[in-house]
Automatic annotation (TrEMBL), chains A, B:
It comes from the Bacteria. One of its GO terms (biological process) is transmembrane transport. This is TRAP transporter substrate-binding protein DctP. PROSITE patterns: TAT (PS51318). It comes from Pollutimonas harenae. Na(+) binds at residue 220. Keywords: Metal-binding, Signal. PANTHER family: EXTRACYTOPLASMIC SOLUTE RECEPTOR PROTEIN, PTHR33376. One of its GO terms (cellular component) is tripartite ATP-independent periplasmic transporter complex. InterPro entries: DctP_fam, SBP_TakP-like, TAT_signal, TRAP_DctP_sf. The gene is dctP. Substrate binds at residues 161, 182, 219, 245.
Amino acid sequence: MTTRRKFLTTAAKSAAAAGGLATIAAPAIAQSSDPIIRWRLVSSFPKNIETLYGCAEVMSKALAASTDNKFQIQVFAAGEVVPGLQAFDAVANNTVQICHSASYYYTGKDTAFAFGAHAPFMLNTRQQAAWAYHGEGKKLLEDFYRGFNVVAFPGGNTTTQMGGWFRKEIKSVEDLKGLKFRISGLGGQVLTRMGAVPQQLGIGDIYPSLERGTIDAAEFNGPADDEKLGLYKVAPHYYYPGFWDGTSMQHFFINSAEWDKLPKHYQAALQSAAALANIDSIARYDVLNPPALRRLVAAGAKLHAFPADVLDSAYDTTMELYEELSAKNPTFKKFYDSQKAFQKDASLWNQVSEFAYDSTIIRELRR
Amino acid sequence: MTTRRKFLTTAAKSAAAAGGLATIAAPAIAQSSDPIIRWRLVSSFPKNIETLYGCAEVMSKALAASTDNKFQIQVFAAGEVVPGLQAFDAVANNTVQICHSASYYYTGKDTAFAFGAHAPFMLNTRQQAAWAYHGEGKKLLEDFYRGFNVVAFPGGNTTTQMGGWFRKEIKSVEDLKGLKFRISGLGGQVLTRMGAVPQQLGIGDIYPSLERGTIDAAEFNGPADDEKLGLYKVAPHYYYPGFWDGTSMQHFFINSAEWDKLPKHYQAALQSAAALANIDSIARYDVLNPPALRRLVAAGAKLHAFPADVLDSAYDTTMELYEELSAKNPTFKKFYDSQKAFQKDASLWNQVSEFAYDSTIIRELRR
């Protein structure tokens, strides 16, 4: 028993003896003295992308509700405290206690960061969750983030993203040569090797750049979020699948010293609230994306699958890139080997389970 | 402020005045007097099916941890308090406060119960979650279960199940005629219409019945759970997909009077803990099923897809059944219409997102 607890227990006993509290206090009431804790959370996402920004609010509300408002986390949008892409650093250096961000934004620090969110041609949404919650990913990610003084819990997922908006059709891999494409991360590196010219642009600059033809294509997310940018008006060819974003998990990243100071039950409450936010995020996207896709197509978006030669060439290029990055960075290799082995088994299982079921449904709905 | 709270606040103030508690109590400490609550949970599942039984333990542990052990739920396996298939009734009549069960077990009360878990040829795992957490299913299910004095939260999912174990190959829909098949629920009704003879058997009776040839086939779950029954030795033909179990969600069902009596923060903590158990369950199955499938095939299980004529005939039979059940039961119709509309949009989105991504991965891994 800590000194504080012991003191409070003694105080409660005195109060009970003096005021007859015992009739209420025992055995049905536990006296507790939970600290009021107030944290600041920075999101990597702007408020107007409600699905992504909303994950932190869902978590924060669930946490406050389950701690009787004793553990309060105030959510700040990207740019309000630090720029969105500096959220992880703000946590690592304890400017704020917690952030909601995507691991792949930080591949500049270490290419292994990709695997916390997604890597091109790797896991799908359920596989990423399985690997991170119950597979080898759990310990790999824990140890990796701890190296930055950070504790992390999955806290959202955009699910498989689209391949983006193109001004002109892509008929073969040749059409990627010289293509100015707003894309970043490992996907950008793959496309560079295929002859495209990745561009870094803020979200607000995408529409005018496509309109003027300063860029030829841009990827953002899926229909629900893409719809807000209106890109179908200036780049109507909407490609799938986003092979560089087969899933895109976000995390709540927490400063490890702040985490270690929390009462154990606040830690547990935060962990459950993060799980709620994660499952809520996927469900929300799965409810919003289908009607958004319908509206986009009705408004003029032209859906295309990437040609097979683009996918094959992109896959081969990605595997070459992974071999090179593995040779350079043992941490990258450890993550890549783990996800690759998991994917091999999981993909076989998928072919006789959900993929087979989905194929059946698609076939029967078309008949 | 309730009388009890007011009294305790007054008592605390007196204690603070008398013993200098104020230095600790303000502003960093919130005095609270949370009741100790102990509930009993009955599971519909036996302990040796750890994945299914485990959901309740994951929830109960997370809940205890996040309430500093003040809200404790003791988990009982099927049969320890009531038989597994009476779990929902035990909650409805307040024999126990909470259970972990599958809604489709209770289609005998009302055929609409199917949609809380799964219905043949309806939603896949992510679609079921989306519909139940953020879609029309949320309110539909809430209102429906409230009619039985029950509050419910999703709390696990087996994901797409296999089509079961058959002593002989199924080469066409003709081979289903007279087939004695251990299967229940709406799937059993569909197969009856196709000429099969559904059998009700306890889990322990499946193996000897297949061995003796008393039955010709049996379905249970997916590889991880099926492996424990050893059915590949007596009925080696392992079919997919389980078109009657495209997903199989479980719920935590709670007596509504007990729920309404809970402090709000205990309600919130339980809700988050249930979400954690739900996501944990899917991740656990996704980690356990792939290697179990490999082991089963190595041990002699022969994997087969159901022939197209079986699937087509089963689909048509299911749609006829749904029309009849809709005509008889307006509640069934309400649920069915909602899931059918959701499936139509969601399946189109699936074809350009995860299904397209999974197809690409399968193709590239085979090249």
